[in-house]
Design brief:
The structure is a homodimer of 531-residue chains. Chain A is of the alpha+beta class. The first copy, chain A, contains 15 helices and 19 strands. Chain A starts with 16 loop residues before the first helix and ends with a helix. At the A-B interface, β9, β11, α6, α9 and β17 of A face β9, β11, α6, α9 and β17 of B.
Chain lengths: 531, 531
Amino acid sequence: MTIELPKPALLPEGVAPDAYEVAIDAFREAIGSEHVHLDGELMVELRDAYAWPADDRHWPSAVLQPGSVEEVQAIVRLAAEHGVPLWVNGQGKNLGYGGAAPRLRGSVTINFQRMTRILEVNEELGYVVLEPGTTYYELVDELKARGGAWWPSTPDIGWGSVIGNTSDYGVGYTEFGDHFASIVGLEVVLPSGELLRTGMWASSTATAAHAHPRGFGPDVTGLFGQSNLGIITKMAKKLSPRPERYVALRFRVQRDEDIAPLVDATRELLLEGTLRNIPVIGGILGTAAMRAPRHEWFEGRITDEQYRATMQKLGMGWWNLRAALYGPTGVVEAQLERCREVLTAAVPDGEFSFLEAAGDEVDAEHFPLHPDRVQAGLPSQGLLESIKWRNPDGGHLEFSPVAPATGAEALKLGGLVRDVMEEYGLDFWPSICVFGRSMVYLCVGNFDHSDEAAIENMYDYYEAAIRRLGAEGYPIYRGHLRGMDAAQDQFDWNDHAYRRFVERLKDALDPAGVLSPGKQGIWPARYRSGR
Amino acid sequence: MTIELPKPALLPEGVAPDAYEVAIDAFREAIGSEHVHLDGELMVELRDAYAWPADDRHWPSAVLQPGSVEEVQAIVRLAAEHGVPLWVNGQGKNLGYGGAAPRLRGSVTINFQRMTRILEVNEELGYVVLEPGTTYYELVDELKARGGAWWPSTPDIGWGSVIGNTSDYGVGYTEFGDHFASIVGLEVVLPSGELLRTGMWASSTATAAHAHPRGFGPDVTGLFGQSNLGIITKMAKKLSPRPERYVALRFRVQRDEDIAPLVDATRELLLEGTLRNIPVIGGILGTAAMRAPRHEWFEGRITDEQYRATMQKLGMGWWNLRAALYGPTGVVEAQLERCREVLTAAVPDGEFSFLEAAGDEVDAEHFPLHPDRVQAGLPSQGLLESIKWRNPDGGHLEFSPVAPATGAEALKLGGLVRDVMEEYGLDFWPSICVFGRSMVYLCVGNFDHSDEAAIENMYDYYEAAIRRLGAEGYPIYRGHLRGMDAAQDQFDWNDHAYRRFVERLKDALDPAGVLSPGKQGIWPARYRSGR
């Protein structure tokens, strides 16, 4: 389907055409006309890839590509001056959550494809300092080129920007898989255009600028996660030392109800420190989808019998745990035995297996499958195949509620999510990331993107799932544009004290209300009068 | 020396006597007259224990002891209404950093000795929810009474409140020794009197309220560390599972310059994950001071020869590392071997030793010395003995600069600190807490508290050390009242962008400027006009 750009361009809500024209001219002056896009390929690329093409609810009116921090400051100051709402992304990926598209129709998008430098790799302390557009692939390549002594943590797919993914609370699968927690210093352009640095980096001299968890006084790092309070222009992140030994282990269980002891055993291994990464417990649909489209496996709603038959064809379990071990050989061997002991005690007929290699041998030869490599910080594009499950023109939207990492909660939450997904005709496609005390019960929502009704059904399901699961005690940790308000509504304690607090900060820091209005359900005064 | 209370009471700066009287009456009405103290023992207890007794620069004018969150809210609202500055402490300990005393003379202190409940211990997920006055000893006792399946992380001395210590970035010695990082949910009274809960706890229904690292949108937890932006009234913190095996290990090296390879080896063990706690590398003065006062060991400045002789008498190294291992027996044994291997490779003639026991046998019988127990979360009052080093009426003040955890930095920073300490006639008394990528190079400043000149000398040294070491790249992570402005001055990047940013938040959240003015060098508009 051809995408037609509106002419004249969309205008952001509350901005008069004349004022908008003046602002665009000012942006051109500030960063160069060639970096101000009102139409063309980039405008198409930076839409929500999985929305119905003609659905303009989240279209930007323009895209700006600054080339320096100073240009970002200039853009922010001009936006405030002219009252033009901005939206920010890194590379413009994050497709399962709405991609580069703005929450507020007609916002002017700042995209960081021109700012992709790796500013520092510290090989003594193990950290890297990045610009907001640097992709995971670029980081992986740079670390490899330097000899591979340090590993990053990455999501499955590596085309997105590290800062974009990290600031959206992206999840990877190493010891630093909780990406936001691995930050050791931010540089931020505030809505005023001023520059801030966080933690020890707020000192111009600090030798531990990227080594210590925080500075002196309140730690403001967290303010810039899933945030419209500032634009991150530099980030320092921890890296992991390449281990002497790397083990990717798997444990497959045969029955649906085995999830309960499996989650409890995984939590035990994490809390005692034997496992230090973010293990994943998944079903079989991801693997099935990598091999063939849905119609070759299933017809209609997936019954337990069909599921079991497919699981056996794939040689998988009903639930499949993957985890990894990193460290000196002797320690890793002892940890591997401990994992085997705890997991097989929990589910005696579960199937324990592993692949291992020296840390400098982790590659596609030793670990042919992506899940065994990504736990060593090696992303791939492979998973994109699975989006073709229902149609070669497929889409996905992730619903990701959070629960305590207990077997009882896994059973209860799993049942609730399955019900709501099947009610909307979707496949139950879980991929549970176990953080230790909590789990992100991520459910892939796969749909036929060639069918407008299927897309609308997905949005309906998404908001219903957020509200129904939220009421049961399972808010989401990260959200698609379409569910941000519903997701924020779940944080309702004391008449939404959290939202009211962040909005007070928002109004103080961004009185013009121009930076990413509506992000994560936080609206500036200018746009929330109707609520 | 008898301490005389001023009559009439001190007034806080900028508050008229009449307005103050009205405010005190309102506080009495709100929390009961018996909990509003204008004189008496409590007023003496909640001074800076190590200031010169007649030095009133940090005296409070009154102490309030609320009994509930509602009473805290009432106090804050009344303070804003009447313009009366407040100051907040837990139990009123933290003596090495100024104790309960307020930064601003005459502030009204809120003390939490009446709010000491343990609200929840979750033995499935491993966390505890506390009130702001609960002490470490109370927490330790409660966990023991429940069977000891979960261990806390504690500082050396356990009489202080968990929330007070944690919110001041207190350090312990377990896997959760970075106490602030182990928070999983805060309840906060804002300067407006409103209540806020953070993270997943901001949802009234969230099952993972104290299990997941953060919620949806910006994480505001960090705003309440070393903060005057709110008063923490409840905190959830992670606990560690009692391990099957516990090992307290030590490594002693014979030469001053051995600190360099020792720090590098410790960092390597931490970054590879073999060590998971916060190890400490110390000299010998702490141990010497536990046995006898200074004059029995040294005369005048401590020379290298005297130091070596004393070190040999004590059977210690020039530098002494302690660390701990926790986990399943097989894993811990492999980790112990790895520690021995890495440490003895770094300093071949270093002396490696350890004590070990089952996790349920960690007590004074199996581990006679405090340093071996505190790494298992068992605090004691023993260290207080060491304060008598120069006089039975002794005092201490900690200078705690932060550096990258490298051998080269340890050599350089150690030399600089030693110079400044000896210049002021102080003993160089380091106790280095190794966080992994960084180290807190804590130096005990021990002085004769019966001598006013010695105390003033200590303050002079403290500010000089903060400024001199700050200029060299080593800001402090935590500070005594007397050094808070100097410490904040070190965070100077972009014309003190960090301080200006936090002050903007301060003015937005606390327009009356009443909550803890000057804490960590952050002043409300009302008091910073002179700067």
